[in-house]
Amino acid sequence: MSQVELSSFSLSELKALQKQVAKAIEEFSDKEKARALAALEEKARELGFSLAELTGGRKGARKTAGIAKYRHPDDASVTWTGKGRRPDWLRDALARGVSLDDLAV
């Protein structure tokens, strides 16, 4: 991998790059998890089971709402648990320079 001379970047350019890297890492991680899950499901099928049977989970089981960890800066009724994809309002706030700590419940 080639080295990038970061000292030539402005602060705003570095922050934009940081956001791009964080997004790329999150997307890469999500893809790797999906690939691992597919491999586990395939192996379970080869052995005559579903992955849910082996892990004690039920396919299609209802998920309960998690505890809100972050709140919309302008509408307190809009929250996010910190799990799953980041909502658009959170990504927009982060792009404006708001920190996650500022949005914490």
Structural write-up:
With 105 residues, this protein is mainly α. It has two domains: 1-60; 63-105, no CATH class. The chain is built from four helices and two strands; from the N terminus they run ααββαα. The protein has helices spanning 11-46, 51-55, 88-95, 100-103; strands spanning 70-71, 79-80. A two-stranded antiparallel sheet has the order 1-2. The radius of gyration is 19 Å and the shape is flat. It starts with 10 loop residues before the first helix and ends with a helix.
SSE order and pairing:
Layout: H1 11-46, H2 51-55, E1 70-71, E2 79-80, H3 88-95, H4 100-103
Antiparallel strand pairs: 1-2
Short structural description:
With 105 residues, this protein is mainly α. Helix content is 50%, strand content 4%. It is flat and about 55 Å long.
